[in-house]
Amino acid sequence: MRWLRKKRVLLLLLLGFILVLFLNSAWLSLFYPIYYKDEIRYHAGNNDIDPLIVAAIIKVETNYKPGAESKKGALGIMQIMPDTAKWVIDKAKLEDVALDRVKDESGTNIRIGTWYLKSLSNQFDGNMVAVIAAYNAGPTNVKNWIKSGRWDGRLETTKNIPFGETRHYVQRVSHYYEQYSNIYENL
Length: 187
Fold this sequence. Notes:
Distance between the termini: 52 Å
Strand content: under 5%
Order of helices and strands: HHHHHHHHH
Largest sheet: none
Number of helices: 9
Radius of gyration: 20 Å
Number of strands: 0
Shape: globular
Oligomer: single chain
CATH architecture of the largest domain: Orthogonal Bundle
CATH class of the largest domain: Mainly Alpha
Structural class: mainly alpha
Low-confidence stretches: none
Helix content: 55-70%
């Protein structure tokens, strides 16, 4: 009987240790790391965008892999389309930014991506769910969905987003945002 009691105590201690490990955010950050923290913090701050939204978008777009280029031609860790990058460079008057740097320079990519997110946030009155959808599907599509009543711009109704890719994208970005919010008190 004594050995059974000792095993129970050891099992409870082991379970308690495992529980503490998984409830500790420092441990969880190993499963949900954020890279380019300084660049994300700086450019998100300059554009009044939650840095954890930026991190979640980067996680979904490229998993922080620099120099990425999609089959459709989206560039860099935030997967910015060249026409969008040109538009941002022009509208934001980023005279020190060249289009050929967007793909390989993560800081430049984050700078353009966060400015674009701020522009989308202005268009959608700060509705970050609609902003995330527009980042993927384009603002015109999202405005049309909302105007027609097809989608109301809420996370709870993402099933109504007509594009499956965008529906899945919004859900994934929201998932990573939630995880990052639980792990990182501030970025």
